[in-house]
Structure formats: C-alpha cells, structure tokens
Specification:
single chain; 169 residues; four-stranded antiparallel sheet; elongated
C-alpha cells in the first residue's frame, strides 16, 4: 500500500492509505470469450454416432471409459459405461459433458485455471468439472451439445472424447 500526505482543514498533514490494487478479472476484451450461439440440440441418433466413435477409439486403445453425450443445457442424451470402467467415473464423465455444454468450452480450460493458481473457479458451480475430457459439440458454428469421457488420465479422456467430436464433422 502507498501512503499519501494530505492536509486537513487546518493545513496539517494527514496520512491516507490508498486501496490495494485489484487483480484483473479477465480483462476487457472486445468480444465475450466462448460466445458460441446455441443451435438445435443434438438428437439421440447423432448422440449415438458420436458416442460410438469415442467408444471405438477407447476400444482400439484398450481403455475402459465412461462416455456421456448431453444437450446444450447439460442434460444427458446418451451414456455408455464400457465393461470394467471405473464406477467413480460415471458421474465424472457426465459432469465433464455438462460443464463443456453449459460453459461452452473445453473442460481443460478450467483445469488450466486451477493449475495456474486460480481456485476461484470452484466457486462458480458445484458440479463444475475442472479436468480434461469434456468438449462442446459445435455444428455449423452453433452449440448442439457436449461429450464427456472419464476412466483414464485426463489426457486419455480428452483423446477419446476428441474422436467423438471429430465424428461430428
């Protein structure tokens, strides 16, 4: 803190403390980040195709995964738990998909914030998944849903989910 000298009514110097500098809250960019418009929500047939592509990638690598596909609001459309996939990862895969859909960004963004000492993100949403492995599903520039994968490391989860995202194209 800095101290400045000011005079009171009699002209005598008085110490005044200035407020501490506030940290940046993301700056003031020209456009809102991750401002993806909402599209028509993904339907069950498309969700099955996307999930199948992710599941095929996991099988190819012999990774046991839980895979969730959700609509733009984060509500479950389709889910698969591969044989032997970790039970704790059922809810995690769904939270990753929900986070990616509702926040319109890859869940790795939140992981990176935690890793760079920005724990405030934990205050944003009690179900926020700050772990790699959740991706928005964007078609024709519009958000139609999201996919979340869990059961391996964050990078394994992300790689399997990416196969589902790529099937959308």
């Amino acid at each position: 803190m800095t101290t400045a000298r000011l005079g009171d009514a009699s002209g005598q110097p008085v110490a005044q403390q200035s407020a501490p500098a506030q940290p940046s809250a993301g700056g003031t960019p020209e456009n809102i980040p991750f401002d993806i418009p909402y599209g028509t929500p993904i339907n069950l047939d498309r969700a099955k195709q996307i999930l199948a592509a992710a599941e095929n990638e996991a099988r190819k690598r012999n990774w046991k995964m839980n895979i969730a596909v959700v609509d733009p609001n984060g509500e479950l459309i389709h889910f698969a738990r591969m044989d032997g996939a970790q039970l704790a990862s059922i809810g995690i895969s769904q939270n990753k998909a929900r986070t990616a859909a509702r926040w319109r960004r890859e869940t790795r963004v939140f992981y990176n914030l935690f890793e760079t000492n920005h724990p405030y993100v934990a205050t944003l949403d009690p179900l926020l998944a700050a772990s790699p492995g959740g991706f928005p599903l964007v078609e024709d520039g519009k958000l139609i849903g999201a996919i979340g994968c869990s059961g391996g490391t964050g990078d394994q989860d992300a790689l399997v989910c990416k196969a589902g995202v790529d099937a959308l194209r």
